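Q: Structure tokens for this one, please.
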Amino acid sequence: MSEVGRLPGTAMIMAAGVGSRMMPLTATRPKPLVEVAGTTLLDHVLDQLRAVGIGRIVVNVHYLADQIEAHLASYATDFAVTVSDERALLLDTGGGLVRAKDLIPDDPFFCINADNWWTDQGENALLRMARAWDDARMDVLMLVVPFARAGNTQGVGDFDLDDAGRLSRDGPKGRRGYVWTGVQLIAKRVIVDPPEDVFSTNVFWDRALAAGRCFGLVHDGQWFDVGYPQAIGMTEAALASG
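A: Here is the predicted structure, written as tokens:
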């Protein structure tokens, strides 16, 4: 893709993790099938994708993979579904992207973690990201939220954001102004030269950051980390209160 602003037709959903932070709820079900307000985390992501007309999904699986595949079967009329199978070895996020890369026809493509919940204020965030994408300048575009509005976060922030929209995380670890929401647009050209089979997407992000090609778009609506059990009730309460 060379033009600015075209909506990618494919999203990869990261659904392979063991969900250790969500124990004991994930003892018998994978984290993407944990429910918030009666909707599974996976269904929430799929609802967001369907709302903007994205018709193709690639989902990686490992832990309790049969449950994820059975759940996806009910979406056969809504999406062209491809499973990236990591049953033999959980590859972490970077390794998962490498494994799935050839299954994804779009470039760039959305990559979304199935352990967060977001609502829009105004235009759909995915459409905003597609419009903001500039292939000449970007390898990665992350949806970020100011730390003060990062619901349920247990971290201290992930990135700083400059006036041009570029992300950085220079210097020692500490409080950063923005939290990554788990939603990104990423170009295939950065998914190269993996250091090993199992590794984090941070390897690819670091390359984009060093080149000045990692950007952030500030989310207008609500966002919640739903990666641990107590976050479910807190998220439901916040959603109910508007």
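A few notes: The chain has a mean pLDDT of 95. The chain is about 25% helix and 25% strand.
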